[in-house]
Design a protein that fits this description.
mainly alpha, 78 residues, 3 helices, elongated, single chain
Amino acid sequence: MNAPGEEFADGNRGRRCRYRGLAKTHVQHVLTALAINVERLSLQEPADGSYRPRPPTAFQQYLDARDLPRPLWWRQGK
């Protein structure tokens, strides 16, 4: 993993600011730091490991019982 400053400067184009003015520059840096932290948190595994996938819906059970393919939804990322 990169050092925090390198990650900001290299990975998120932090060397150049999109806006002029100290206040707007500060807002951009805060939002970029927030995005970096969210990305870091999304890569971590849950501490308790109690995640269980949801049971299939009635519609999914209907499709599975008849050997029909399940449609791909936008939330599945496919």
